[in-house]
Amino acid sequence: MRESVLVLDFGSQYTQLIARRVRDIGVYSEIRPFNEPLERIKKSQPKAIILSGGPASVWDKGSPSPNAGILDLGIPILGICYGMQLIAYLLGGRVEHSKRREFGPAEIEVADSSGIFADVPRKTGVWMSHSDRVLELPKGFVSIATSENSPVAAMKDKSGIIYGTQFHPEVVHTALGKEMLSNFVFRVAKCEGSWTAKSFADTAIKEIRAKVGDSKVICALSGGVDSAVTALIVQRAVWDKLHCIFVDTGLMRLNEAREIVESFKDLGLNLIHIDARKRFIDKLSGVGDPESKRKIIGEEFIRFFENEASKIEGAEFLAQGTLYPDVIESVSVKGPSAKIKTHHNVGGLPEKMNLKLIEPLRELFKDEVRAVGRELGLQKEILDRHPFPGPGLAIRIMGDITEEKLDNLRLADAIFIEEIKRAGIYDDIWQAFCVLLPVKTVGVMGDERTYENVVALRAVTSLDGMTANWARIPYEILEKISARIINEVRGINRVVYDVSTKPPSTIEWE
Ligand code: XMP
Questions:
Q1: d(CA 99, CA 101)
Q2: Which one of 292, 393, 461, 507 would you pick to mutate in the ligand 1 pocket, going by the greatest count of ligand atoms within 8 A of its CB?
């Protein structure tokens, strides 16, 4: 059984961060719903359990509560914020309900420098975000830290395996938060810490080899890092029994299709390259509505993929680059978010084609996928490439699509990317791209009046694409990009910079 720490999710915005921090220090961590049945918890044999924070109050009617039996399992437990209040409440302590929120930096005074506070100085800065607080400890517990506002800023039980912190050790604003989590994981829960990109890849390769046996695996390559790393892991497991399919939709960036084919051939992947450019542009001709474009692209993609896959005899598996954040969306206590845009992927394929799924990255976050890719020798250009949407440039040309618009957009986009790479800021940006607007404006070039299109530059910083801020690209670089696009791309006489955050805007324009 792999060594693991389970995080029960009570709806905190930091739940994912807790799991990431624990993995960062070398122990596999997984998020489960707050009401995970006891039997399933026991079956996973976790070395420790962390109860996340959350927006509720233990006094609220119907507030989320774990199966109380988890406190009797004898497994080390750390409750963070709401998690700590729950432990106190469930074990008979007194939690004060307050409408006043303590939010932001605070200083704690440590009273017991063992356990989670080993090697932590007597006074240290932490991050608070709570309204309720523990006023009386449950029987058998002691306070191990105080702050100006919290008589119990941290607590532990006498046996030293159940801990609670009123503050958030998982956020960087808690100066020694990483040390505290490390102390919990290694000193209290006695983990060994064997979770590394290499050990992950080795195990995944062995498991896939055993699962696939003598049959074959198909994988759709998009050029993005997730499908590339998926393919590499499967390749190391089953070698030539993996068949990768790359459908060139004609909606990719400048030279991208060629680069994808070349780099994957260099990696020794068994690659089928389908040139479907004409079909896609024909089908999209005259279509302006974003969701209709997505639908057409999704359907066409599946058609080509299915057709090609059906030629591969004995294929029983489909490898997909599903990541951990995609998986946990569905188990979170927060309600499912409204569908804003339908994201095109190959999700509908396995049932339709009667294929079994292989998803080696299901347990990983994006940065971990990159670490695994690095371990397997994937080129930096693919590893660190900005995410690119399935429908490609089709959703970056507002309105209908023509070859000419695609060519112009590709050129403008290549200039933008080249300049931010040259300025050394590419890796600081989550996504940067151009959008071609169907708007004509008046300009003057030489002595001539011009009446041409506008290109919008979009560059955002983000952790996961769910929220985003516009990148503060220095004016001098923007100036250069604008001048080059207007001079070098035909039909463009104006460049604008998008300064909208997500929400309320989205990253893509369509
Ligand atoms: P939005 O525009 O929704 O984008 O803020 C969030 C992230 O998702 C990408 N995106 C897509 N990816 N198919 C995809 O595979 C799509 O239809 C699609 N639409 C948006 C977008 O590039 C960003 O990374």
A1: 6
A2: 507
170 is catalytic: yes
pLDDT band at 346 (very low <50, low <70, confident <90, very high): very low
Hey, what domains does the chain have and what are their CATH numbers? Answer: 4-188 (3.40.50.880), 197-383 (3.40.50.620), 402-497 (3.30.300.10)
Count CA within 13 A, CB hemisphere, residue 79.
Answer: 30
Q: Mean pLDDT in the chain?
A: 92
Instruction: Give the contacts of 36 (CB within 8 A, at least 6 positions apart).
Output: 6, 8, 66, 67
pLDDT at 325: 74
Is 219 among the catalytic positions?
no
Decide if pLDDT at 270 tops 60: yes
User: Angle, nearest 10°, between helix axes 277-284 and 290-309?
Assistant: 150
Residue 468 DSSP one-character state: B
Cα–Cα distance measured from residue 487 to residue 494, given in angstroms and rounded to the nearest whole number = 10
Q: What is the pLDDT of residue 163?
A: 98
* Residue pair 272/308 in contact by the 8 Å Cβ criterion: yes
List the single range of 198-202, 273-277, 331-335 with lowest mean pLDDT: 331-335
Hey, which residues does 78 pair with through a beta bridge?
Answer: 50, 163
Omega prior to 76 cis, within 30 of 0: no
Please tell me the distance from the alpha carbon of residue 440 to that of residue 454, in angstroms, as a whole number. Answer: 6
Name residue, tokens 């090697």: 119
For residue 191, indicate whether it is catalytic. Answer: no
Burial letters for 248-274: b for 16+ Cβ neighbours within 10 Å, e otherwise?
bbbbbbbebbebbbebbeebebbbebe
What one-character DSSP code corresponds to residue 397?
A: B
Cβ atoms 171, 105 nearer than 8 A: no
CA-to-CA dists, residue 205 to 195, 214, 245, 306, 358, angstroms: 15, 15, 20, 26, 11
Q: Which of 195-199, 249-253, 467-471 has the highest mean pLDDT?
A: 249-253
- Write down the residue that tokens 């699962």 correspond to: 211
Torsion 144-36-319-389 (CA) sign: negative
Q: What's the length of the chain?
A: 510
CA-to-CA distance for 138 and 7, rounded, in angstroms? 23
Closest CA to 32 of 48, 24, 129: 48
Ligand 1 cavity residues, CB under 6 Å: 294, 340-341, 343-345, 387, 389-391, 431, 465, 502, 506-508
Helix (H, G, I), strand (E, B) or coil at 119: coil
Predicted pLDDT at 343: 54
pTM (two decimals): 0.81
Q: Are 261 and 271 in contact (CB under 8 A)?
A: yes
pLDDT tens digits for range 117-172:
999 999 999 999 988 999 999 999 999 999 998 999 999 999 999 999 999 999 98
